[in-house]
């Protein structure tokens, strides 16, 4: 019999990751000096730091504590549509709408983590060398 995910633990992980992401956002704004002299690139960098914190904590936390969600990820594909690049995750249905909702959240944070690292590197280079 398949193990059911612990929804209470997943919600706690999600809220904790959201709080940590918000704290990283405010702290990085303060450390980069955006409250005194706002600029666009450092603000976007702070947002990327927050996104990486939220998605990394939730994704890896759920992977470690509720690994049963991983079995519903069928494939990951990178699709190029004109000038856009999209990361498409195909998931299998569990038959339970509550589990399917958490599978969607899990897949979203997984893609968010993967797609937020590259812009962060680009923005970091702009911030340091431009």
Word description of this protein:
The protein is α+β, with helices and mostly antiparallel strands and 130 residues long. The protein contains three helices and two strands, in the order H-H-E-E-H. The chain has a two-stranded antiparallel ribbon. Strand 1 and strand 2 (84-91) form a beta hairpin. Helix 1 (7-32) packs antiparallel against helix 2 and helix 2 packs antiparallel against helix 3 (97-129). The protein is flat, with a radius of gyration of 17 Å.
Ordered list of secondary-structure elements with their pairings:
Elements: H1 7-32, H2 40-65, E1 73-81, E2 84-91, H3 97-129
Antiparallel strand pairs: 1-2
Please supply descriptive tags for the structure shown above.
alpha+beta
Describe the global form: flat
Number of E-type strands: 2
- Spatially, the strands of the biggest sheet line up as 1-2
Helical fraction equals 55-70%
| Count of discrete domains | 1
Over the alpha carbons, how many angstroms does the gyration radius reach?
Answer: 17 Å
What order do the helices and strands follow?
A: HHEEH
Mean pLDDT rating:
88
Q: Which residue ranges are poorly predicted, with pLDDT under 50 across at least 5 consecutive positions?
A: none
Class by helix and strand content?
alpha+beta
Biggest β-sheet, characterized? 2 strands, antiparallel
Alpha plus pi helix count:
3
User: Strand-residue fraction?
Assistant: 5-15%
> N-to-C terminal Cα separation, in Å?
56 Å
